[in-house]
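thread: overnight batch results

M.L. [08:02]
morning all. the overnight job finished for the chain we discussed friday. pasting input first so we're all looking at the same thing
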Amino acid sequence: MNKFRGMRSAMIVGAGVAGLTAASALARTGWQVEIAEASPDRATAGWGLCLTGPSLRALDALGLADACLAEGYGMRVITHVDVDGIPSDQVELPRLIGARRPAMVGIARPQLHRILHAEAERCGVVVHHGLTVTSVDPQQDLVDVRLSDGTARRVAMLVGADGIRSSVRGLLGFETPVDYLGQMVWRALVPRPGWATGIHQFAGEVNTAGLVPISRSRAYVFLTENGVQPGMLPDSELAARLADLLTVFPGRVEELSPLTSASDSVVRRPVQTAFLTGAWNRGNCVVIGDAAHAPAPQMASGAALAIEDGLVLAEELERHSTVERGAEAFVARRAQRCRTLVQTSVRISGLEQAQRHSEAYRLVDTCHRQMAEPA
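M.L. [08:03]
and the structure it wrote out:
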């Protein structure tokens, strides 16, 4: 057991996937946990995501996999479709939580956050909305934290789980570039076509597109727009612009274009990556999730890394006599796995833009099998 001085107390910054998972994992081992979340309420941006096998394995360790299976759409296959609209191959993903359970799950992001929030609160975690950290002062054994409402905390550990543009990372003196990969990704919430029982990815002459089921009735369409500068478009134009971009694809994508033009839930975001080289911790402060390692979405594994981070951090803290040693062990255990995924996602982005789709597909398959190895 740990021999931390005083109460096991942690302040986590960010109530996203990484922060909520870490909070529950820590609280289960006796930590008193607070989360400071900048957004004023629980409203969650984004339409859906994939929980790959590693995500489900980590969620199963928290007893949450079945709740996600019930709310989402279980799948096992990715179907790749060539530029002529003809299926070229299928990738069957490893089933990591048992032969009778899905290999992956598509789920609405708000549903996943509701499950994670409920578990954190069940474990006694206190979530403060509309609050963030303004200063951090690591001491020998504790951390002095000042919050945006003027209050202060003295805690045994500070965890920065506040995303790719983490403010905690900056407060700790860590610097890493956020790289734009020359792509904008579109997503639109649509009714699920009957044929969509797994992920479909469609190669195009310029862009790539796809469909991911997230429930029995809903799915999201995605399109990766290549060779464009990042920038904003008026929300009122998004649905029509996405539908227009889809019209050049043959085959089943023809069915998706009218669905997206009727959608009132369309977003367009830059494809960005970041990886923090060197230490992720300073004393008893550590950054996790996208604050430390943000992959491009092509591997659909950002959530997996974030969920694994929370569990591994709690495990390593249990194994070491001080928070600092536990945090250092966490970084040592996670860095190579996360670096590999981020670098692979960058390579896949480049292959997509070079229209080398078959190479990209093989790389995705290889990386999924690497990720199937224990975290």
